[in-house]
User: Fold this.
Amino acid sequence: MTSLPIDMACNDPDNGLFAGRVEQISIGSAFLELTIRRDPIRLVELPDGRLRIARRVFPITASAEWVGNWCWNRYWLDLEQAVKLLVWLHQRRFFNCDEGEERLFNLWRKAALEEADVGLFRRLFEKEAIHIGRAA
Assistant:
């Protein structure tokens, strides 16, 4: 099963300890960059290999601490879960899109996603996961 890495700025910048709050999200190799609109949202690492982000639970396939620097953790989600996470975050309007692949950036600006938009997320995430897998 192909997984997509999703990096989350969820650690205290003063000491690198898990803070349980997400301020930024980076998907793939800077494929989509999101920054919180207001206050950071709650993130809980559940002991059974799942994440709870703002009361919604998503299974992860792996995780790593201090990716890039000590403020970021990486979580790998299978492609379908990654799509569900991004669609849900889009619906909730927690994050602004600061940077991203042009089509994803434009989709993020839409008021609501249609089924064709979700399909595009899925296809682009699959290509990004394949690209990252070859680069690793």
About this structure: Residues 3-135 form one domain.
